[in-house]
Amino acid sequence: MYLADLAQKMISPVGVNAFSRSGTNSQLTIANVPLGRQGIVEGSATLQPPWNQDTTFTQAFVAGGSTTSSVSITSTGPSRFCRVSFPVVWTWP
Fold this sequence. Notes:
The protein is 11% helix and 43% strand. The chain is mainly beta and 93 residues long. The chain has a single domain (2-85), classed as Immunoglobulin-like, CATH 2.60.40. A three-stranded antiparallel sheet has the order 1-2-5, with no helix packed on it. A three-stranded antiparallel sheet has the order 4-3-6, with no helix packed on it. Strand 3 and strand 4 (52-58) form a beta hairpin.
């Protein structure tokens, strides 16, 4: 699974396509989401640590399905930086 994760990141890296904000709610549109994997959206008021986990999400695996996902988070201040990650899944045979 580790090599598959690495190949997926190189071929079609995950990215934020769009970001919108309405009041204290923000909406991220994330492209190239690995199907069936749990993603984490972390946020911070500055680009410095600490980064706090805002939410988790999973894009269900459906044949011919979309790899784009919309995620809602609550903003806690006038500015919010976000990053998306998919922890490495690796098991010993």
